[in-house]
Amino acid sequence: MRTISLLFVLFIRVYYVFGVPEIVSITDDTVVSEGDNVVFNCTVKDIGAHSLEWKKTNLESIDDSEVLLALRGTLNFADPRYTVNIFPKGDGVVIYRFSIKKIHASDMGYYICSINVSQKEKITSSVALSVKHSPVILDIRPFHVAEGQELEAVCEAYGYPIPTISWKRENDVIMPGGGRVLNGNTLMITKAHRLDGGNYFCIADNNIGEPVVRIVRINVEFAPVISVPCPKVFQAEGYLTKLECKVKGYPSVSISWYKSGVQLQGGEKYEILTTDNSYESTNSVLTISQVCNKDYGDYFCNATNKLGHVEARLNLWKWIVPIPF
Ligand SMILES: *[C@@H]1O[C@H](CO)[C@@H](O)[C@H](O)[C@H]1NC(C)=O
Ligand SMILES: *[C@@H]1O[C@H](CO)[C@@H](O)[C@H](O)[C@H]1NC(C)=O
Ligand SMILES: *[C@@H]1O[C@H](CO)[C@@H](O)[C@H](O)[C@H]1NC(C)=O
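# 2-acetamido-2-deoxy-beta-D-glucopyranose complex -> structure
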């Protein structure tokens, strides 16, 4: 009789130690707002001598980037917002609880309750935590495209719920594909025109707070074009005169002035004032302080950028009466 009861006790103990643990249930996937508190229960049966771990991974990438949050009843790192508890319920059932206070958007992820049942095997169950938060637009750099070429500009944002993305232009200018708004995250320009260059807005909206807007610069590169407001300039000897070139081109255009094949330099006789009016428009004014007889004739204004160069001819004519500036 004694032997039997001893065997029975042994049997129970052996069974208890080698019994297969089971995760009976885990809290349902949860959606909360920032600042809320959450409680995850992982109900386990027959855990025996095994240990339970709480781990976390990202919602987007369920890769190997698991972070250990707690082992049994002990937190792996001290975050005052985390609490871990164990509640024995009898009959081999234990509730392991992981709670988080004052939820941040960064708490989003899968919370995994995991037990190593052997060297190689583990059983897991997970709960997805989604945190409602306004969109965040991923870093987006200016785009460059040569005129006539194709451009695909993609704007990406995350947030929960998943934001919708649209594109607009500064000052409500018509979009390259027509209309004032383009829905979707991809702005496609099939054949870029210089007028397609400028500031665009990528707008991400998920109805949590205000839509989030980001300025996206699109630069269309084109060879310089010169316009000369006044190709024929008249002045009397001994007086000051100015020759002007207006240039459009992108990227940065450099302008130089020539007379009789010689490049003119700023100094006593000449002053060259070149100013950028906008990212694609540059003005250059050549001032001749005191016109003398050999200054009459042709002048060339030469504009160059990486896509090419162009020159324009201006002519200084002798005049009897001084023209005021
Ligand atoms: C977690 O378990 C406790 C104790 O059994 C219970 O009071 C609570 O409602 C449970 N919470 C969730 C989210 O299941
Ligand atoms: C469970 O197994 C994993 C992978 O083999 C190991 O990294 C981890 O430390 C184990 N956990 C426990 C509590 O033994
Ligand atoms: C204008 O500048 C370009 C590039 O520097 C040069 O190749 C070209 O010869 C210049 N034109 C004149 C008229 O000097």
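# post-check
Confidence is low (pLDDT under 50) at residues 1-15.
The first strand starts at residue 22 and ends at 26.
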